[in-house]
Amino acid sequence: MSQTCGFVAIVGRPNVGKSTLMNRILGQKISITSRRPQTTRHQVMGIKTEDETQFIYVDTPGMHIMSKDRNKAINRFMNQAATQALRDVDCVVFIIDRTRWTEEDQAVLKRLEHVKAPVILAVNKVDRLGEKGDLLPWLAEVGARRDFAAIVPISAKHGTQVDTLEEEVAKHLPESVHFFPEDQITDKSLRFMAAELVREKVMRQLGDELPYQMTVEIEEFRETERVTHISALIPCRATGAESYFDW
User: Fold this and answer.
1) Residue 220 lies in domain
2) Which single residue of 13, 101, 110, 178 could bond 54 by disulfide (Cβ 3.0 to 4.6 Å)?
3) 88-106 tens-digit pLDDT
4) Domain shared by 143 and 204, yes or no
5) Is 176 labelled as part of a ligand binding site?
6) Binding site annotation covers 18?
7) Is 198 annotated as a binding residue?
C-alpha cells in the first residue's frame, strides 16, 4: 500500500478552538490555549502518523478584522502568519463556532477565496447546543456560502466526530513518502514548547492584565536523568520590570 502525506492548515477567527482541535487530534498538548484571543502567535506544526498516512497539521494564529487599536502591529503580524500558512497546503480545515456566523468568520472565508486546496468546514462546540435539530438548517445556510469539500459538526473539547473530520482530511492527502519520523509529533524544539507553556500559564492566571506584547525567554533548559530544570524570564515592557520563574 502506498504512503500518503500532506499539510493541513487549521484556520479560523480567534478563540474558536483551533489549538484545542489540534491537541485533540494529536492526543497531547502541542498548541497552548487560553480564553484570550490571539493566544497562538506562531505557526505550530503537529504531526500525526497512522499506518501509511501522515498528517502534518499547521495551527495558525486567529484571523481577525484589523482595528486601529495599539495592538495593530502584532495583529497584522498574526494575520500575515495565518495567511502564509494557506500557501501550498493540501487541505484546509476552517473551524467556526456553532450556529454563530460573525464578521470575522466572513473575513476568514474571504481570505479562502483564492485557496486552491479543498476546504473542510468544522463546526465546533456542538456539545453546547440545546436543540440539535436547530443545527441542520443552519448548516445548510452556511454550506451555501462556499463549495466546501465536507461539513463536519465536532466538539474539539470532547472529541465528538473528530475522527470523522480526520477521515475527511485523509481523502485529500496526496501520495507521498512521509516527511517526518513516525514518532515525531511537532517541528518545535523543547525550549520553544517550554516557553509557550509558561506563557499559557501566565495568560490564564493574569488574563487581561497582561500586555499583548508579553514574551517569555528561556534562559536555562537543563535536563538530568531525574528532572528537567527550566529558568524563564518574562520581560514586562510597559514598566521595564522583569520577572523570573524557575522550575
Assistant:
1) 190-246
2) 178
3) 899 999 999 987 899 999 9
4) no
5) no
6) yes
7) no
